[in-house]
Structure formats: structure tokens, C-alpha cells
Specification:
Radius of gyration of chain A: 20 Å
Strand content of chain A: 25-35%
Helix content of chain A: 25-40%
Number of strands of chain A: 11
Distance between the termini of chain A: 57 Å
Largest interface: A-B, 35 and 34 residues
Structural class of chain A: alpha+beta
Number of helices of chain A: 10
Oligomer: homodimer
């Protein structure tokens, strides 16, 4: 499970908590803080928990940074983390900081819940539909962006992608990684979700397999569609790394993979786009739950859904409505 | 405060939690695991909390270790951590591991409490007495032990200490760092403790000052006695580092510093030595609480209490009862 659930001595309550920490993967320290926080909270959201009682922040300052770098970078990371926590309706009270060769940022999210506040991730049944709430390809986008400064690596992918594509994909990846899965967690209750997990280091297939293993019914998950940040499927192929189309490319702070009753899935995907939840939420039906032996697979030639970066569509909209092009 | 206390939505309950992580400081990985766990739990114990609902373990494996080293060392550290958690009546459910240049071990301790289960550390009053539950000098002992292999450093202290003294002090330090402050936490309730903290990185004086600052009454803490692992006061002086006699030498997983009503302090110190709590518990009256302005100090010439290592007394007992010396 993404979080641990501990029954408490007090009136049917459970302690649910999770921890995660890692190394910066984007250059913007503020966004990195937001991503780290979204990533920790995501384990609670995967259980349909929308409220977190407390967060602790785990931080290591790099010994290789000079005083000036420390004073510039660390407060921004901390602010990003705190802002995301606030957006999640919680706050950061406590934590610990050390000095280390590398920067580390992470946290602990804890909540005390009544039984109806969380959804145990083991109730998928044949006939359910799999929904994913963020596009894949964050790791590919982050690495492709680093390769802009690495001619050897860049040469391998420059035939399939432009520098502008990579910039837009990187922005889109950052946006997605920093976005909380909180709205999706709330809608899991509205639409009667049967199980969910969040997509991180093991890729979509790895996490789908983990989730399938936990199910009480004899089920298997079959993935037909892969929503991927535009051009990143091609980059993954051209680079010969990642395995994005095989579902093994790591994601950071990815979306929720949710098993929903068939009749609810389309409504879930429509509802999450409603402006009342703020901008940028998306969801796709990516597969089905069938009778099986607790495994997950991607079909031979999955449909790739190229998810356009917001930057691109914004640019597109702007030019459509600019005076020059209006007749 | 050593732990954060978050009021919950549920019937007067509070969430109390704390986190700590650091780098190995002793060579024995099993003991290191125990020390890390004792160190995390100590923040709860300082609030008089004797039961922990859940622990998470935070771990980084050093990238410099080869496969064999990893497989030998990490399971021992994890076992030490788990064993100490079990001794504390709790268990480790969850955590996170990364690869890093250095080994890191730490954890998160969380409990959901009723108000009578914890003692807010702000009720010291003039006339109270300060009690300390472990001897000082852990850092000095650990470093002196490392200096056995460093002739330059060793030369500075060899006039005041023998190799055997250092070995015994190191064993004593390990024993103390790995010992839980749980018994002391329980006795804080029995003897009506007014406030407490645990002694770690800021040394006895730093933590005494922090505790003094938090008091609601106008008080100051005055420390008269320093119980120190035998010979480590001399080592601290000879080395010209540490500041052990000034109260600024860091401790790891140190004892609790407890403000007790005067008439209870001696009883506390007697009770904690009772065999019913297992071996090795000690406590000393080290100072007083007087009217003042939220500060703490050590008197000019504090009394040094040389705390004999158990190894030494064991050795001593053995020779006393051995056939050769019995007349």
C-alpha cells in the first residue's frame, strides 16, 4: 500500500501515514519544494484521503553549496513545500535538517481517520475501468531537458523533437509533478472508486502490477492507452532508455491510477475537468479490469495519447485571438 | 518542543510526532540501528509519552558500499532499529530508502494521545530540581575511540587516558545511546514532572536553555553537577575541543533533563535504579530551578561525577569474586 494504516486505541480511528524523500530533479528550487510535497501527499490521496493532519519536512543541505547558494536556494524549496502543503489544506509542523553531500527533500504526511475517510485499495472487480489522472513521461521530459546541454545525448533525440518541444514538455512535466492529486482523491468517493495507487518510481506498469497483486478478487489489469506528454514517446524510443511505452519509465509525483465501476469512469473524467476544481486537471480511461490472476500488462500496441503541453495550447490560443489573425 | 503536538478533529485527541535522522557514529551497525531508534523515540519520551503508535524508518544506503557490504550492514542496522522499536512497545510499519553518498538512518515516531498521556514541557517553577537520566560525554567517547587509530589526535589525550579507558568509555556510551528513555518517561508521571527535554546535539547547556525559554513561570536553571562517563571530562579538556565541561558538547540519544518538584527528585533517582525496570538505569540531581529570566547556566566549578563504565564495574566485580583473590 502507498500509506501504512495503523488501528488506534481510540474509537475506531486509524493512523494513516507515509514518507518519501528524494533528490532534486528540476532546477527551480521553489517548484522542487512543491513537487516534493505533492509527492508525499500523493500516497494519502491514493487512499482517497483528502485531508492531512500534519506534515513534517525532511531536508538535507548540500555541503557543496556555499553560504550564498544555501541562503538563496533552501528558503525557496521550503516555501514551495509549505505552499503546496497549504494548498492541500494542511501545514508543516516539525521536521529535521542535516548536511549531506547531496540535497535531499521529502516529508512525512500523517492523518487520523475514521473508516469512511479512506478507501482500502483492494476492491477492484472484473468489469471495472482503469483511469489515470496525470500524463506519463515526466522523467523523460526532465532528462530530455538536461540533454539540451549535452550534445552527445541531444544528437540521439534531435531528429524527433525540437528544443521548443522539450522546453514545453519540461514545463508541462513540472506543472504536473507539482499538482496535488487531492481533487482526484475527493472524486474517488463521489464515483465509488474500488482501488487506487499513485504512479511514481516503478512506472505505470510496475504500479499497476503492485495494485493488481493487492486485490481481493481474481482480477488482472489490462492497459490499452498511454497518455503521454507530447513528443516524449518519440524521445523515449529514440533515446533507447526509459521504456516509456513498455510502462517501466519512472515517474515523479505522477497521477492516480484508479479502478472505477465502468459506468462511473467517464463521469469521473468529465467531472475532474470542471473549472470548479481549478485549472489543469485531466483524466483518461486507460484500461480495464478483467478476471485474472493478479497481474497487469500493457497490450501489444497501446494507443499513445499525445497530451499537449499547456504552454503550447496557451500559445496557440493567443495567436488565434490576437488582433493580427482576427479577420 | 521536542515533538510537535497537533490537536485532532476527534474527541480531544492530539497527534504527537517527531522525526530525526543522522549519520552513523558507531562502527557496530546493529547498535547504530538501536541508537537511531532510541534517539527518535526520545523526543516522545521527553514529553512523558511512553507508548508510540507507529514508527517509519528513513534509510539511505551509501553508494560507496559494494553489494556485499550492503547485504551485511544494512540488515543489521534495520534489525537494531526494529529491536529497539519492539523494546519500546511499538513497531516499524513503513518508511523509505534511497541511495546517497553517505549512510543515513533515522525515523519518525507518531502517537495519538489523550491529554493526560503527555506532559507539556512548560510548568517548571522555582524550587524545582533538575534531574538527568544518562551520563554526558557520548560524543567525546565516540571521538576518542576513533582517535585510537589517529596518532596525531591520540597523542593529545594519551596522558590523561589509557586505551582501555577509551574502550570502556566507548562501550558505555554505546550502551547509553542505545538505551530507551521510556522508563524515565513513565516515572515522569509517577513523580509529577513539570517539564523535560532530551539531550542531543546542543549539549546539556543548549537544551537546558531551550527548555528554560519555554517555561510559563519566570525561572532560570542552574546546573551544579555534571555526571560524565569516566575520564571523558579529562579527554575533553586535553583535546581542547568539545566543551564538555561548559555543557556545549553534543550528545547523541542522551538522557532526559527533567524538572521535578524538590521532594520528588531523590525518589525519582532511587526508583529508576530499581531492578524491575531492567539493568542500567541511572539518574542524578544536577541542578535547581530558581526565579529568573528563562535562562540556563552551569556554575563556575561544577562538580564532575565520574560515571564508571559498566564494563569496568563488571570487571571489578569479577576480580573480587574470583577464586584467586578470595581469601
Amino acid at each position: 500500500m502507498d500509506s501504512c494504516v495503523i488501528p488506534l486505541r481510540h474509537g475506531g480511528l486509524s493512523l494513516v501515514q507515509t514518507t518519501d524523500f528524494f533528490y532534486p530533479l528540476v532546477e527551480d528550487p521553489y517548484m522542487m519544494g512543491r513537487i516534493a510535497c505533492a509527492n508525499v501527499l500523493s500516497d494519502l490521496y491514493a487512499m482517497g484521503i483528502t485531508d492531512c493532519d500534519n506534515m513534517l519536512m525532511l531536508l538535507s543541505i548540500s555541503q557543496k553549496m556555499n553560504e550564498e547558494e544555501r541562503e538563496k536556494i533552501m528558503p525557496l524549496m521550503v516555501k514551495g513545500f509549505r505552499d503546496a502543503a497549504e494548498e492541500g489544506g494542511t501545514s508543516v509542523t516539525g521536521g529535521h535538517t542535516v548536511i549531506n553531500p547531496w540535497i535531499i527533500i521529502g516529508g512525512v504526511a500523517t492523518v487520523v481517520c475514521q473508516p469512511n475517510e479512506f478507501i482500502m485499495p483492494d476492491n477492484a472487480v472484473p468489469g471495472d475501468v482503469l483511469v489515470l489522472t496525470k500524463p506519463l513521461g515526466t522523467q523523460v521530459a526532465v532528462n530530455a531537458h538536461q540533454w539540451l546541454d549535452n550534445p552527445e545525448r541531444w544528437n540521439k533525440i534531435k531528429l524527433v523533437v525540437s528544443k521548443e518541444d522539450v522546453e514545453l514538455a519540461y514545463q508541462e512535466a513540472m506543472f504536473n509533478m507539482a499538482m496535488l492529486n487531492r481533487t482526484a482523491a475527493g472524486l474517488m468517493h463521489t464515483f465509488n472508486a474500488h482501488a487506487a495507487t499513485d504512479i511514481t518510481g516503478f512506472g505505470i506498469l510496475g504500479h499497476a502490477q503492485n495494485l493488481a497483486k493487492q486485490q481481493k478478487s481474481e482480477v488482472s489489469f489490462v492497459i490499452h492507452n498511454l497518455p503521454i506528454i507530447a513528443k516524449m514517446a518519440a524521445v523515449s524510443k529514440a533515446s533507447g532508455r526509459f521504456g516509456l511505452l513498455q510502462g517501466t519509465s519512472a515517474e515523479t509525483s505522477g497521477g492516480l491510477l484508479i479502478c472505477l465501476p465502468r459506468e462511473q469512469a467517464a463521469r469521473f473524467c468529465a467531472e475532474i475537468k470542471s473549472p470548479k476544481y481549478g485549472e489543469g486537471h485531466q483524466a483518461w480511461i486507460i484500461g480495464i479490469v478483467e478476471k485474472g490472476n493478479q497481474t497487469a500488462r500493457i497490450i501489444d500496441k497501446p494507443r499513445i495519447i499525445e497530451v499537449m503541453p499547456r504552454g503550447a495550447s496557451l500559445h496557440h490560443d493567443n495567436s488565434n485571438t490576437s488582433p493580427e489573425t482576427t479577420s
